[in-house]
Specification:
Length: 227
């Protein structure tokens, strides 16, 4: 074994000991308060998002006041600005949160479908069902109505949240005889979201025959046959 001589050798030895300690009790002592603080911050963000959902649901407005949000959440302005630079940033985080939850819900619905046609139908049904659920409709309506403004303010976040919804549909269409599953998935997304928007605007649920027609039209456009 080489001898450790001089200052360089001591530094190397101390660095080795520091690395070992970081994996042991010292590392645990450093991580423990950070993990506790992280958990508090996660809880604060969740409270802010859930409170804003409730205010939007109650008022039907995508422009709730900061006073209403803070009163509903029970948090301080300092807590708000610890996580968000503006109210619009909070709103786009809500939009992303909602769409990612929807993507997980759609994944679950589609997983039990036996074929491509069934998976596409399950995706469309899951999206359109929001118009028939009073709570989901109340929460979704303002975001659908103002999605262009949010896209202008936060284009990257808006694109990522749309991708979360498109992904399961595109994956389903990868098993279809279409030359461009990505383009077909985007076309079906636009058709379905436009239909949802119309029903959210008028406060109506999607009738079974309208849902069936949307599914038939989408499947025919993608060249998917129904067994």
């Amino acid at each position: 074994m080489d001898e450790i001589d001089g200052i360089d050798g001591v530094d190397k030895l101390q660095g080795t000991e520091a690395a070992a300690n970081s994996e042991g009790l010292v590392g645990n002592a450093v991580r423990r308060p950070l993990e506790a603080r992280w958990a508090v911050y996660e809880q604060e963000v969740r409270r802010l998002i859930d409170a804003t959902y409730r205010v939007v649901e109650r008022t039907g407005s995508l422009d709730p006041t900061m006073r209403d949000i803070m009163r509903e959440s029970g948090l301080s302005n300092q807590a708000f600005y610890r996580h968000f630079r503006s109210k619009d940033e909070l709103l786009v985080a809500m939009l992303d949160d909602g769409r990612r939850r929807m993507a997980a819900y759609l994944d679950h619905r589609m997983s039990s479908a036996p074929d491509v046609a069934g998976k596409v139908a399950a995706w469309i049904d899951g999206v359109l069902a929001q118009a028939g659920d009073p709570i989901a409709a109340a929460r979704t309506r303002p975001f659908v109505a103002h999605q262009d403004r949010l896209a202008d303010l936060f284009p990257t976040e808006q694109r990522d949240s749309i991708e979360a919804m498109l992904r399961p549909l595109r994956e389903a269409l990868a098993g279809a005889p279409t030359p461009n599953p990505s383009a077909d998935a985007l076309a079906i997304y636009r058709l379905t979201l436009a239909t949802l928007h119309d029903h959210l605007r008028t406060g109506t649920a999607v009738a079974p025959e309208d849902r069936a027609h949307t599914v038939r039209f989408a499947l025919a456009g993608a060249g998917v046959s129904v067994n």
